[in-house]
Predict the structure of 3-oxoacyl-[acyl-carrier-protein] reductase FabG.
Amino acid sequence: MNPATDRAVALVTGAAGELGRAICARLCRDGLHVVAVDLNLEAAQALVRDLDCQPGQRALALHADLGDQASIEAMVDRAGAAFGRIDVVVNNAAVNHRGSLFDFDPVQWDHMMAVNLRGPALLCQKVAPYWKAQGSGRVINMVSRCWVAGGPPAYVACKAGLVGLTRSMARELAPWQVTVNAIAPGLLPSAFTLDGRDRESFELMAEGSIGNTPLKRLTTPEDIANTTAFLASSDAAFITAEVIHVCGGSQLAPFGRA
Ligand SMILES: NC(=O)c1ccc[n+]([C@@H]2O[C@H](COP(=O)([O-])OP(=O)(O)OC[C@H]3O[C@@H](n4cnc5c(N)ncnc54)[C@H](O)[C@@H]3O)[C@@H](O)[C@H]2O)c1
């Protein structure tokens, strides 16, 4: 722990987005220092201004492009210089270029793989020396229920890849008591899911999603923030290499009526 303040440091990527904001707010409420990382620095700064930090608690907004190794490394250096340690990494940032197998754009495919899959790996590679020195750490990777359900191929491939990375890193980082888990949210409205869709087509998609969800509602940002907080806490110290589906059972195949 941080000798000065006894608070852990959480670094959250995609912090300015719908889920990122809720995760930062919850980890801040739980008493962690928060490093809010986003491509959109202004939005991350606005989020940090809104966080309700207690005396001795700090929140810092940093720019990074998760698709760019130098940018990731510069950001981690700045976070390390500011706090002296990094405990929790939430790999939440992602981009989504839609496209089917028949019409996907290879440049967009590579961009998605770089941001959504290589980015989390490079970030963890750069933070690893902190975890090794501390003998503790937490990684929480944001995937999606579609890693099992299927969907747009590039998006699903990088989320399924991120599950594979979760399991590999869980083994590689275990000697330092670093746990690595994934959260698979269901559908919720955000810039990510609304992009390129009008509200009406989102509502139609949401209706279909609720229809296939045994617990009969969409995911909320708070559902995801609560699970992130649990995985970041000492209560989850012996859980690693898991995927927690936070999607009301929509990872199950629809079941016909008897
Ligand atoms: N919204 C959903 O329905 C849903 C469902 C399942 C999984 N997810 C996953 O949850 C995570 C967050 O999604 P959201 O709905 O909050 O999306 P969002 O669009 O609201 O937020 C994404 C954030 O990532 C940032 N970002 C984009 N490219 C970046 C880059 N190259 N470097 C750094 N930051 C970058 C954006 O600026 C944005 O603030 C994603 O990993 C997404 O795949 C979302």
Remarks:
- The mean pLDDT is 95.
- The longest strand covers residues 178-185.
- The beta strands are 9-13, 33-38, 59-63, 88-91, 137-142, 178-185, 243-246.
- The CA atoms of residues 79 and 165 lie 23 Å apart.
